Automatic annotation (TrEMBL):
Name of protein: Aldose 1-epimerase
CDD domains: galactose_mutarotase_like
Top-level taxonomic group: Bacteria
UniProt entry keywords in alphabetical sequence: Calcium, Carbohydrate metabolism, Isomerase
Length: 349
């Protein structure tokens, strides 16, 4: 079997499950229906031993520890209705202003207090021989302040080419902001070191400007010739030093619809390469500068600052407040669709 279901814990008297996907090459992906959350991605090394490469926990309790709740890193979660920050926790649509929770300073973050990452999703599997599952959810009108009822699903498929395909589908019955992403933190070294010696390449010279609160302004900055111009690969730590900060950069891409290679990350030993493909117009490269050093997996794998990076593909942050932001609003009856692929390659194969 390529999909195995097991118990993962109980929350509010509701059982939570864990689904283990495995491909023919031995790669393993584990996903829980609490938050449609990727809890583990394991890659086989040259000796066939599995190496953990993402931040997460092996039990539901790990996502409810005081250290996790105080830090809110969203490890591996599916984020919505609208990921990233919405300025001043409000937006106007069709002549009406909608107020949201200000859960990130004055702004709204990742859908609010109880976003999609804190819901229990329904699950279906295609068949036992396919390493694929689909998780579904219904979001009611005015949930967390957003208009319209939304039916949505996210499918996770692990191919025998070591690709993890994530496909989103959502349909609202009213015009509403929608921007969904996956919030997995990767460390391609298997957490043997920080990610500062990874090299990163992002295939654009444009990123969004942020204001003092961390919300996007809509202004696009040309980074050509700057330290954060990653069109040619650079060591992440060297850029950290040059900008005196970690990455929290929203890179912008020209093609909105086509599945395109937007980023490539390689570990310091050049053993593992991650290529990111997406249909989305924007990607946040985040290097975990706010991640608490108090967080670790049950087996002792240490998380913390610069111990994991995210490639979050989505619509423009603060899109509902940015004129001309591509597809930040999904119209009533129309389908929101999005695809992102994380493809892993091994240099010693």
């Amino acid at each position: 079997m390529k999909v195995i279901k097991s118990d993962f814990g109980v929350i509010e008297d509701k059982k939570v499950a864990l689904f283990t996907l495995k491909n023919a090459k031995g790669m393993v992906v584990k996903i829980t229906n609490y938050g449609a959350t990727i809890t583990s991605i394991q890659l086989p090394d040259a000796q066939g031993e599995l190496k953990e490469i993402v931040c997460g926990f092996d039990s539901l309790e790990g996502y409810f520890s005081e250290a996790y709740k105080n830090n809110s890193p969203y490890f591996g979660a599916t984020v919505g209705r609208y990921c990233s920050q919405i300025k001043d926790a409000k937006f106007s649509l069709n002549g009406k202003t909608y107020d949201l929770a200000d859960n990130c300073g004055p702004n709204n973050l990742h859908g609010g207090v109880i976003g999609f990452d804190k819901r229990i999703w329904s699950v279906t599997t295609k068949d036992a021989d396919a390493a694929s599952i689909t998780m579904s959810l219904q979001s009611k009108a005015m949930e967390e302040g957003f208009p319209g009822n939304v039916k949505l699903s996210v499918s996770f498929t692990l191919t025998d080419h070591n690709e993890l395909k994530i496909q989103y589908l959502a349909t609202p019955d009213e015009d509403t902001p929608l921007s969904l992403t996956n919030h997995t933190y990767f460390n391609l070294s298997g957490f043997s070191e920080s990610i500062e010696n990874h090299t990163a390449q992002v295939h654009t010279n444009k990123r969004l400007a942020l204001d003092e609160t961390g919300a996007a302004t809509g202004k696009i900055i040309n980074v050509e010739g700057q330290p954060d111009d990653l069109r040619e690969e650079k060591r992440i730590g060297a850029v950290h030093e040059a900008i005196n900060d970690g990455f929290e950069h929203f890179y912008v891409f020209d093609e909105e619809e086509a599945l395109k290679n937007v980023a490539s990350i390689v570990d310091s030993q050049k053993l593992v390469r991650l290529d990111v493909y997406s249909t989305e117009p924007c990607m946040l490269l985040y290097t975990g500068k706010y991640t608490s050093d108090d967080l670790k997996r049950e087996n002792g794998i240490q998380y913390g600052k610069y111990r994991g990076f995210c490639c979050e593909t989505h619509r423009y942050p603060n899109g509902p407040n940015i004129e001309g932001s591509p597809k930040s609003i999904t119209k009533a009856g129309e389908n929101f669709t999005s695809t992102t692929v994380f493809k892993f390659s091994f240099y010693d194969n």
